[in-house]
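Hi R.,

Here's the chain you asked about this morning:
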Amino acid sequence: MARIAVLIAQRLGLGVLILFAVSLIIMFVVELLPGDTCQELMGQGATPQTLQACRAALGLDDPMHERYLSWLGGMLTGDMGISLANQRPIDELVIRRILNTFFLAGIAAAIAVPLSLMLGILAAMYRNSIFDRIVNVSTLTSISFPEFFVAYILIFIFAVELGMFPSVSNVHADMAFQERLYRSLLPALSLTLVITAHMMRMTRATIVNLMASPYIEMARLKGIRGMRIITYHALPNAFAPIINVITLNLAYLIVGVVVVEVVFVYPGLGQLLVDAVSNRDMPLVQAGALMFAAVYVLLNLFADIVSIISNPRLLHPR
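And the predicted structure, written out as tokens:
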């Protein structure tokens, strides 16, 4: 157990270092963005004196390292600053939008995870059959297309032609859960089609490998067949790699929703980040980008920790 604790502590320390490096990259990239924040805020009619006063008020004339330390200190204490575009606290904007993103990712995960497990198990059971080939071709086809293409195809079929769902997912906090779910289902389906292939193929490959194990052969000799062999013998030993790939895909769901949110005008953190870039709202851009990075790193750390804990060679060292 001491070795496991050391490995987990190393992963957590590495996660902190990665977030620190990401914060440096975010600050550097924001500095490279073209345009003038004060010019964007005050319009083309602003005088040089007005622009200079604006830059001084926002601290844009300070050296980069001072602005970085001030911003990082605020993020560590929970003070994300004030949005330049609407003069509202950034934490208020980010929290509301990231909850919407979590809601959308949660719907996609609720569809994709059981669907992937079911398809992976059935494809492993009927390996090299027509069903196995159809599932592999279908999932690989869906993952070969970019998210925006899948989203527009779904809009054309289910919103334009069939009229089953709205093409714009304009949800809000006061909306009833059923209505919110209904309006979020089409973007969630777009995300589901993108991530299902990874999880399905990992489930299939893991179970196929386990089915060739000696203890599975012994179970077959005892007369155990079909789904019972997979459920009671193969699947428990396949949990570690399957949970790992599910967690990694959940991380992608959180940070990979930007394109889908823009296509469906979904009010999530990705849409907020795109609007902030358009408005040159740099404090909001930095806070949103760091939030995305933190969620991605945390979910990857969770996947690493699950892999460490479920490793029998670490749990029962010789």
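Residues 90-125 form the longest helix (36 residues).

Let me know if you need anything else.
M.
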